[in-house]
Amino acid sequence: MLSLTSPVETPYHRIPTPLKFAALALATLGLFLAPQLWVQALALAGVMALYAVGGRTFLAEGWRNLRPLMWLVVLLAGWHAITGAWASGALIILRMVTLVALATLVTMTTRLDDVIGLVTRLTRPLRPLGLKSGAVGLAVALVIRFTPVLTDKAEALRQAWRARSARRPGWRLLGPLLLAAVDDADHVAEALRARGGIPEGE
Amino acid sequence: MERSLVMVALFAALIAALGLIPPVTLGFGVPITAQSMGVMLAGCVLGARRGGLAALLFIALVALGLPLLAGGRGGLGVFASPTVGFVVGFPIAAFVTGLVMERLRSVAVFPAALLSALVGGVLALYVPGVLGLAFVLGKSVPEAVLLVAAFIPGDIAKAVIASALTVMLAQARPESLLSRG
């Protein structure tokens, strides 16, 4: 559940991660510098073609990831229809959809390990400033582990409430959830200390 | 040291978990998510530095491609979308919340937390949020404010709940309130 990487194997999965990120940064900069409508339309068509290469399942998955953006497209279109600024509206909407779609494509075709690897490499020069890469890696792993634990706890609390009351729990469950989470954190911290503390990182 | 790191990671996870709660729709049709309440809590409970780090860790994981933002959004696309300012504003908001909380050590917990959450979690979040919206959409700042104004009452309600939760934690586990430690 905790990843946006697509299980559909595309040719983009094999492109080196730093290359993909550099290309994305360049494309983003380029589109912000181009005020011509036809450039933006061409770019969107290009990105859609890139998605199409991945096949039908991949395309559907991409659409699912981009759907939350659509209410904004509707809102923006409505806003520009009212103010009558058609050209600037089309430019803004096209650029927004293209950039978000392109960035989502990079995320969908890059494995989480590879991204973490890239981040570790990029943050290495910061080590003299006191950033322990071991601590960063551990913190990332802890968040990825804690998140489902917290949602499971919230679900258990919700079921316990529903077994006892017909009313909606609302925010009342957040108190016990917070307490349980803080107690968990204490146990994890003790367990870490017992096992030799935070790793130095290589 | 271990405890600090684990608490930072825990609050990053709490921000994520609160985003997974289905949004509540206000009377006039505006959906509000509990996610930014997690940011307020991080500041109120952990203080400026650790709270800011927790929110920073959270948005770093979003950038890495985990679908942790409310509505299951994540990945680099978030940083090209019009709401980029609100996401980037999370660490700023948590830091400012914690800063105010630490300054108000002599004030009772509830008023201190409420003021912190309002200044940090609402004001300090909407400044980058509105600027990001205005920049990405090419709008003027007043127009951008108009687009988000409907969300402000929900955020004020979240500040009240976050303060109530901070009071509860201060009573039940006073040693966990690192902002006053």
Written description of the protein model:
With 202 residues, chain A is mainly α. Chain A is built from 8 helices and no strands. Chain A is extended and about 60 Å long. Chain B is mostly helical and 181 residues long. Chain B has a single domain (2-180), classed as Arp2/3 complex 21 kDa subunit ARPC3 (Orthogonal Bundle). Helix content of chain B is 69%, strand content 2%. In chain B, strands 1-2 form a two-stranded antiparallel sheet. In chain B, strand 1 (24-25) and strand 2 (31-32) form a beta hairpin. Classes of the chains: A mainly alpha (202), B mainly alpha (181). At the A-B interface, helix 4, helix 5, helix 6, helix 7 and helix 8 of A face helix 1, helix 3 and helix 7 of B.
What characteristics describe this protein?
heterodimer, A: 202 residues, mainly alpha, 2 domains, 73% helix, B: 181 residues, Arp2/3 complex 21 kDa subunit ARPC3, two-stranded antiparallel ribbon, 7 helices, globular
Number of helices of chain B: 7
- Low-pLDDT sequence parts of chain A: none
Report on the biggest sheet of chain B.
Answer: 2 strands, antiparallel
- The share of residues in extended strands of chain B comes to under 5%
Strand content of chain A: under 5%
Question: How large, in whole angstroms, is the Cα Rg of chain B?
Answer: 16 Å
* Helical amount of chain B: 55-70%
What oligomeric state do these chains adopt?
heterodimer
Mean pLDDT of chain B: 89
Enumerate how many helices of chain A there are, as a single number.
Answer: 8
Question: In terms of topology, how is this protein built?
Answer:
The complex is a heterodimer of chains A (202) and B (181).
Chain A: H1 17-33, H2 37-53, H3 56-66, H4 70-83, H5 86-108, H6 112-123, H7 133-164, H8 174-194
Helix pairs in contact in A: 1-5, 2-5, 4-5, 7-8
Chain B: H1 2-20, E1 24-25, E2 31-32, H2 35-46, H3 48-63, H4 84-103, H5 109-137, H6 141-148, H7 152-172
Antiparallel strand pairs in B: 1-2
Helix pairs in contact in B: 1-2, 1-3, 2-3, 2-4, 2-5, 2-7, 3-4, 4-5, 5-6, 5-7
